[in-house]
Amino acid sequence: MIENKPSVHYINYLDLDKILNAQNPLSGEGKEAAHDEMLFIIIHQTYELWFKQIIHEIDSVMDLLKKDKIDEENVGLIVSRIERVNKILQILVKQIDVLETMTSLDFLDFRHHLSPASGFQSHQFRKLEVMLGLKIKDRHQFGGCPYHDQFKGQKKNEILELEDSASLFKLIEKWLERIPFLNMEGFNFISKYEDAVNEMMNNEISRIKDSHLLNDEDKNLRVRMIYENKKYFEQVFDENTHQKAVENGEISLSYKATMSALLINLYREQPILHLPFKLLKNIVDVDHQIANWRFRHMQMVEKTLGQKIGTGGSSGQEYLKNTIEKHKLFADIANISTLMISRSYLPELPKNVKNQLGFNFTDKWK
Ligand code: HEM
Question: Is domain 34-364 annotated with CATH 1.20.58.480?
Fold first, then answer.
């Protein structure tokens, strides 16, 4: 039964008195104030509110992935929440347009007031990075001290605890390892896939060798490039080669999880694989949206600060540039595209396997 509660006013429900009284420009009030400081404060506060919502969504996705049994319904919910995160991230990237209306000169009117404060000290941004799976050893460090030295007490402990707990990356890896599609009766996926890849590559090499448009030098170069590309496939054909690449830090995703992700991508048209495919696609989009944000933020810093050091003490633009690629987390899932083969080479699934992967009732109507 829905409990009867006293009616509530819009202002109280949203606690607007608190929120709307939380903008306190340091450059002064009235005519003294630097005009653009209000924009600077509001835009940061807006980001922090959206970070809160993203953490709320990711937290719930992680809880769903920790369940003993993750059924279709759960995967549907996970997908819709990650899709929501991506929509928010798109807004966060776009919001930089608003801040870019503030020029470098406008910023200098109040920048000296806020030092040493910096987005570098955003606790929620760090929480989000660590929840997604960014480990301290994989960060681009500056100044010799760890990033969490910016926080004290409970705030620091929260980050350290997150560093030690399962991240979204790990939970997705576990989910991929658990899904049973690799053990389909009567269908040895890897050996069929290896045959198909070899056939595709041999055909590509023959086409190059038979070409009337390429000279011998070009032909040799292209054939060499095909063999070089083959190293990605060899990590899939042989578990030990994959393991070595993990140990060397070249890749992070486990062998079993990589195989599942590959199968999901290749056979995404099978009804039961639609949602797992959407999940993988959306998780790569999260990585890309955050990288987009990092890139736009870095460019904005270039326009407002040039080569000046940041208020947080980093090299500024140079530091930010280094984080764009280095802090990506789901690159191994994005790189599954390297392993894709065209539909014409794709091994045909036997009928019993198709039924396993389809919605069984479809057969009854035939
Ligand atoms: C004029 C506007 C801005 C300037 C000039 C600026 C500048 C910088 C600089 C130089 C850094 C590197 C750390 C340092 O030494 O301070 C940084 C980091 C950061 N900024 Fe901004 N920023 C601006 C706006 C924003 C906004 C609106 C946000 C939104 C929350 C934000 C969030 C962050 C975050 C999260 C970091 C840490 C990035 C990382 O370590 O990967 N910044 N910012």
Answer: yes
